Prior knowledge:
This protein is α/β, with parallel strands linked by helices. Helix content is 24%, strand content 14%. Residues 40-108 are annotated as: Disordered.
Amino acid sequence: MPRIRRPLSPRLGTALVIGAVAAIALAGFATTHVAPSASQLATSSGTPSVSATAQAAPGPGALDDGPEADGTSGRPAASGAGNEPLAAGGTGPTPSPTAARPASESDEALAAGITPFPESPVADYQVGVTYDPAPGVNLVVRTATAFPEHGLYNVCAVNAFQTQRADVDFWLSNNRDLLLWDASGAPLADPDAPGEYILDISTSAKRGRIAEIQTRELRACVARGFQAVELDNLDSYTRSGGAFDLGAASAFAALLTAKAHALGMPIGQKNTPELGWAGSDEIGFDFAVAEDCIADQNCSAFTDVYGTRVIGLEYTDRTADFALVCNDPRRPSSTLLRDRALRGPGTPGYTAERCTTWPAL
């Protein structure tokens, strides 16, 4: 569910790559994203290729990601009007360069069967209520339990780092050791999402087991006809009470990225600007969904890395003048204003405004 997020600046370190590779071997994934060395990153003039192998979609997942109780967060693309200064991008293990590199989909990934994420998305974000997209929209984000929109590019939203409310019994009955527990002996819940419990990805063994379970969601997305997937709650480490850090979250994301690519789907980073270039170069993300990046002044942490392949979501509770947002040249080219509850059309409070022109320079 959408939340107000603040940028942090933890360090990943080389343990990220080692942990990700070890966990991938444990989980038995046949396809991996190999991170370049620090020296390679420093001298590279482009984004590394993403290894991917297209496979036939297995059956629907055994787990069902139900829609969020409070709705959607949407976004199309285009330009607009705006003027809020933005800070430089996040600082991960790979610092953002002073000049942004062009981000492009690798030819190898496309040749392997991945349908590329649109370079100029005009998106709607329907993670709760689904409805007919507005004219001009070419991309829609929905949960695995929803149906894709015919004729559009469809992104499947998966709550990979926390439990879905509808699946709590599954985790409590069969996988209690894969949940975090608080001092009172209760499963550790996300304070902003009651009923969602934080998954324990603190060790490579647990990451491997959880990845196999969450891969059922990825398979369900493929079976339903989605072309790509985005991972929600990548920042759950900030709510883990110190049980795990950004390095563990990144290693787990690398497992799911490898699996998504093996299933023929690009995969998106959700928030977490502190990853910087590591999101693409080390984990293997292909695009990003950035909430409140204008409000938090960190849009460049996403746009420097993914170029126009960023879906920007601003919310009415933090944005007084959307025209200023749209006129800011540092915003994602695809930027949308939504109500925080992500209501559907016809519901009081529903808001879905899109930037439709390039910023005035």
